[in-house]
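Page 37, continued from 36.
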């Protein structure tokens, strides 16, 4: 959702900005632009893809050693050339790019108009350019402090001034912004992949911090212009992880990276048949006394949380409340002493999840976050962060992010169960072995890719589908259904099989496609009865079943068998064919799987 890149240094500014913006394409955008400072600021911006911007930049002089760039995901004002960022002050001496929403922009606009400022766009961002101009006193940081004291809302901001050819300023509140540190050059970006090929050293800005970026140094200030000392984070992500490496799409590459990512995630926590969470501030005594667990997340991370709830309740006998972050915030949640909270977020920047985390912390509840992006806001604000180590996830639809979240939840669950003596040492050790096998079982599923591709060819032109399962299989169905709908635009509903007959079975008619997940022994007979009910009404059934389940042929058009593992880890195996199926169906339908319409990778608005 909107992306920022900024650069100062000796190299080709235009090229660095365009490359960085391309790397941020996955966040979702509808227009883009850059500004480069030479003797004056030159702006080039346009609606549409970055390829359009690249073409347009060829017709303009865009040379200089400072520049800012932006991909816009429209909120205020339609996507067009004028509303694209950067935005100028009226005299064109100040240029601004902004992510987020300025909530009081109408009020600010009115005041600025009274002072004679002329607005040419419909954006909220333009007020920043004029406000900055109105306060400008030659000191870029001081001016920004004044501006930020007036502004309400969320922002990541990058501002350039014609008068200052050796610096630019940045600030953030509730919208991510990182600073990349180079040699005689420095960078800013919304996200690490944009500048990963340039540097692996970063400062992560906190809310209400201002950065003054020069080519040979970066200084961070608070709102009173006091200097803040910052820790440098080294990010060990391999650059190749942010490239397609021969795959047609990032999504396919990331599906195939899952075995390795899960292995990395699990091995980082297992030592001598035990599970360790480094710097964990929750003692064994506190684990023994946990009252309720609250799992809070959005989208696929919430689906992972549902698997977590299922297995924690079953294995640890702790009651788990699972909440969608945007709902949790407004429900006056019941949080008691001895409760703990697990926040799940791949990006670590999701606005609703972050707001839920802050609310929980305010109530004095300990937060464990399961996060992928190192140094992200959720990671930094949690009492305990467990990094999933999946590396940069570029495709908008998560795959390896989700899978590693599951792996981390398994480990938390097992550790809690062991500490609370719900399972014996032997069982604990067996589970650990089983966890370590997940990687090879996923590899086995990936080997039947061609079979899955053939099935996709048969069903790609459907317009509706049901994905059903019971118990843990229902949790998997929810994630499978989201994958299918978000990248192929097929309307798909996940249903708990036993619930269909309470209404939705009315939609089943001759030819309705039903994907069924069957991995749980104890409810298999019941799940099969539910399949017979839809079959009797004309449904075409495709089954994803655990190896060894018999007599499914007469029920289904197609079956994909998946390897057996401990039942509570089956979500990790069963989701793989559904990811591949969704991918190949979407490809057949001509969809842009990496950047589905209307979606953004990191949802930083509420
Ligand atoms: C779907 C998907 C989203 C995210 C959700 C939360 O494929 O990726 O549903 O899971 O937007 O994002 P994070 O995990 O970054 O908080």
């Amino acid at each position: 959702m909107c992306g920022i890149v900024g650069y100062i240094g000796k190299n080709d500014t235009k090229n660095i900005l365009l490359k960085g913006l391309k790397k941020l394409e996955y966040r979702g955008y509808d227009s883009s632009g850059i500004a480069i400072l030479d003797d004056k600021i030159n702006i080039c911006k346009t609606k549409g893809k970055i390829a359009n911007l690249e073409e347009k930049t060829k017709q303009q002089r865009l040379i200089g050693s400072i520049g800012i760039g932006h991909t816009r995901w429209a909120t205020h004002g339609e996507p067009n050339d004028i509303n694209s960022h950067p935005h100028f002050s009226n005299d064109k001496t100040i240029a601004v790019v902004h992510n987020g929403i300025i909530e009081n922009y109408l009020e600010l606009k009115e005041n600025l108009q009274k002072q004679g400022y002329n607005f040419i766009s419909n954006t909220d961002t333009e007020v920043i350019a004029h406000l900055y101009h109105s306060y400008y006193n030659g000191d870029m940081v001081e001016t920004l402090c004044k501006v930020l004291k007036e502004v309400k809302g969320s922002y990541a901001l990058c501002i350039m001034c014609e008068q200052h050819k050796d610096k630019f300023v940045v600030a953030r509140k509730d919208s991510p912004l990182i600073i990349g540190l180079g040699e005689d050059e420095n960078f800013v970006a919304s996200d690490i992949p944009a500048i990963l090929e340039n540097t692996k050293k970063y400062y992560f800005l906190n809310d209400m911090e201002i950065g003054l970026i020069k080519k040979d140094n970066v200084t961070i200030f608070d709102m009173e212009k006091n200097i803040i000392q910052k820790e440098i984070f080294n990010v060990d992500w391999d650059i190749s992880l942010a490239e397609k490496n021969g795959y047609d799409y990032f999504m396919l590459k990331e599906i195939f990276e899952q075995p390795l990512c899960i292995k990395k995630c699990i091995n980082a926590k297992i030592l001598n048949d035990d599970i360790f969470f480094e710097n964990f501030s929750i003692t064994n005594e506190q684990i023994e006394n946990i009252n309720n667990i609250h799992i809070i997340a959005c989208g696929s991370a919430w689906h992972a949380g549902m698997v977590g709830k299922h297995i924690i309740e079953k294995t640890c006998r702790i009651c788990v409340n699972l909440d969608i972050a945007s709902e949790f915030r407004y429900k006056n949640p019941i949080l008691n002493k001895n409760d703990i909270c697990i926040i799940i977020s791949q990006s670590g920047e999701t606005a609703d999840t972050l707001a839920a985390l802050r609310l929980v912390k305010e109530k004095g509840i300990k937060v464990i976050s399961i996060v992928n992006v190192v140094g992200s806001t959720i990671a930094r604000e949690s009492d305990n962060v467990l990094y999933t180590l999946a590396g940069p996830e570029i495709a908008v639809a998560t795959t390896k992010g989700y899978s590693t979240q599951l792996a981390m939840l398994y480990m938390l669950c097992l550790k809690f169960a062991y500490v609370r003596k719900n399972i014996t040492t032997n069982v604990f050790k067996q589970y650990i072995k089983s966890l370590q096998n997940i990687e090879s079982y996923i590899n086995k599923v990936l080997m039947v890719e061609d079979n899955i591709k053939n099935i996709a060819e048969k069903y790609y032109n459907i317009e509706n589908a049901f994905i059903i399962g019971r118990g843990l299989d229902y949790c998997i169905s929810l994630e499978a259904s989201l994958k299918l709908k978000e990248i192929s635009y097929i309307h798909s509903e996940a249903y708990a099989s036993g619930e269909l007959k309470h209404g939705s079975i009315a939609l089943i008619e001759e030819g309705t496609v039903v994907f069924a997940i069957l991995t749980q022994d104890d409810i298999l007979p019941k799940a099969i009865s539910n399949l017979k009910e839809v079959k009797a009404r004309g449904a075409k059934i495709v089954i994803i079943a655990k190896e060894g389940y018999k007599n499914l042929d007469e029920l289904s058009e197609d079956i994909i068998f998946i390897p057996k593992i401990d039942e509570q880890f089956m979500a990790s195996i069963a989701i793989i064919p559904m990811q591949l199926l969704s991918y190949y169906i979407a490809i057949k339908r001509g969809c842009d799987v990496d950047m589905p319409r209307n979606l953004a990778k990191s949802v930083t608005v509420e």
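The chain has a mean pLDDT of 94. Flag for discussion at group meeting. The CA atoms of residues 65 and 188 lie 14 Å apart.
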